[in-house]
Amino acid sequence: MGPSHHIRLSGCAVSGCVKYATPIYDLNIDRPMNEELLSTGDFEVMSLEADEDEHSIEMHLPYLAKVMQSQKDNFTIVPILVGSLSPEKEAKYGRIFAKYLADPSNLFIISSDFCHWGQRFRYTEYDERKGDIHESIKALDYEGMDIIESLNHEAFSNYLKQTGNTICGRHPIGVFLGAVNALRPRQSNGQTNGLNHHLKFLNYDQSNACRSMRDSSVSYAAAVFTLG
Q1: 14 burial class (0-12, 13-18, 19+ CB within 10 angstroms)?
Q2: Which residues is 116 bridged to in the sheet?
Q3: What is the Cα–Cα distance from 43 to 63, expressed in whole angstroms?
Q4: Helix, coil or strand: residue 44
Q5: Which residue intervals of 61-202 are DSSP H helices?
Q6: What pLDDT digit, counting tens, does each position of 165-223 carry?
Q7: Contact 80/174 with Cβ under 8 angstroms?
Q8: Which element (helix H / strand E) includes 202?
Q9: For 58-102, how does the pLDDT look when each residue is reduced to its tens digit (9 = 90+)?
Q10: 3.40.50.410, 3.40.830.10, 3.90.1150.10, 3.40.50.720: which CATH number matches 86-98+112-228?
């Protein structure tokens, strides 16, 4: 799942392509799965131009192809472009994806980076109590990462409203959290329908250590979610 950067999209869209080319080998798109999603009436098909222009999914494809090279004839991909969704719509799509998330034969990849900070991004929030600007950004990002690790969709939505943090993949993350919450029983007992679930951030970095209001940076974080 990747956020839409180039087209206005109020829902989610699947690819109309049969294959995606990578420098290693072509990745086959799961057409029957696309049709299954389209049959819900909640998905559309992205245009070829939008598909080719969008980098949020494209940038993952060579890495995916490399990691899966030994199984290159035994898997398919389902690219999902995620638009600007309300928390309610994120939860709705989460309910659609929940059964696929629970299937151990599926792997979900959520594309996002974290804070885009600087005047060119129109986001210059700075809490001087945290230290230099880059330390304030890190504290802001870590607050969001902690909430994502808690798998609390509502808390993540509230965090975004309160901070305005410019996480470009916030809606794909929201859909994922909606799927997890659709699987979880109401009791907070550390299990999902009898399955253990756990999300942990593994790494975090920034493209630049901002110290001046003239600086800018983009933050990056990687996490892994396990369900079993």
Answers
A1: buried
A2: 218
A3: 27
A4: strand
A5: 61-67, 87-101, 133-149, 153-163, 170-183
A6: 999 999 999 999 999 999 976 545 455 556 688 999 999 999 999 999 999 999 999 99
A7: no
A8: strand 195-206
A9: 999 999 999 999 999 999 999 999 999 999 999 999 999 999 999
A10: 3.40.830.10
Strand partners, 206: 219
Give me the helix-helix angle, 170-183 and 87-101, nearest 10°: 60
Report the C-alpha gap between 203 and 127 in whole angstroms. Answer: 23
Question: Encoding tokens for residue 52?
Answer: 């080719």
User: CB within 8 A of 222, min separation 6: which ones?
Assistant: 201, 202, 203, 204
Domain boundaries, the chain: 1-84, 86-98+112-228
